[in-house]
Amino acid sequence: MSLLNDSALLAKAERCRERMRKIAAQVTWSKGWNIFDLPSREELITFFSSLTKPEIYKFDQDVFGYGHDPKTYMRIHRMKESTAVVELEQSIWDKETVYGSVPNCGGVRGHDGADASTS
Predict the structure, then answer these.
(1) How many CB atoms lie under 10 A from the CB of residue 19?
(2) Nearest to 5 by CA among 50, 59, 49, 58
(3) Would you say which domain of life the source belongs to (predicted)?
(4) 108 pLDDT more than 80
(5) From its phi and psi, is residue 110 left (phi > 0), alpha (psi between -120 and 50) or beta?
(6) pLDDT tens readout for residues 56-79
(7) Does residue 46 fall inside a structural domain?
(8) What residue numbers bound the domain in which 61 lies?
């Protein structure tokens, strides 16, 4: 299913965009925002689809409560996420490879000889 067809995400993105437009009109309140570079509806839908409910609440709180720039907040979140992925990948590669001496000891069907496993 396309993210643009998800009615809950679409409604959330529309409400969020509308709030951003209203706030951007009040230049004194939104002085931390780049009001000429607000996230598009598609960017918001993609961003919200990757968040949990507590993370969406934190986004609302930080952007609408504390005045953080929405696009900057989204970029920082993506950087944290990609850093975590890189760290996870590195921890997997750093694990010691364990070799089984019994064929199919790792449960791989149709494999002759010892298995290599990182578990």
Answers:
(1) 14
(2) 49
(3) Eukaryota
(4) no
(5) left
(6) 889 888 888 888 888 888 888 888
(7) yes
(8) 3-95
In a domain, 102, yes or no: no
Tell me how far apart the alpha carbons of residues 12 and 17 are, in angstroms, rounded to a whole number.
9
Which residue type, as a one-letter code, is found at position 60? D
Quote the number of domains for the chain.
1
Q: Which of 42-56, 60-74, 102-116 has the lowest mean pLDDT?
A: 102-116
In a domain, 113, yes or no: no
Alpha carbons 115 and 35: distance in angstroms, whole number: 57
Give the phi and the psi of residue 105 in degrees, each rounded to 5. -65, -20
| Tokens 């993609």, residue located | 46
Rounded to an integer, what distance in angstroms lies between the CA atom of residue 21 and that of residue 35?
8
pLDDT at 103 over 80: no
Burial of 46 (0-12, 13-18, 19+ CB in 10 A): middle
Q: What does the pLDDT look like over 90-99, one tens digit per residue?
A: 888 887 766 6
Q: Are strands 116-117 and 98-99 parallel, antiparallel or unpaired?
A: antiparallel
Tokens of residue 37, six digits: 């570079």
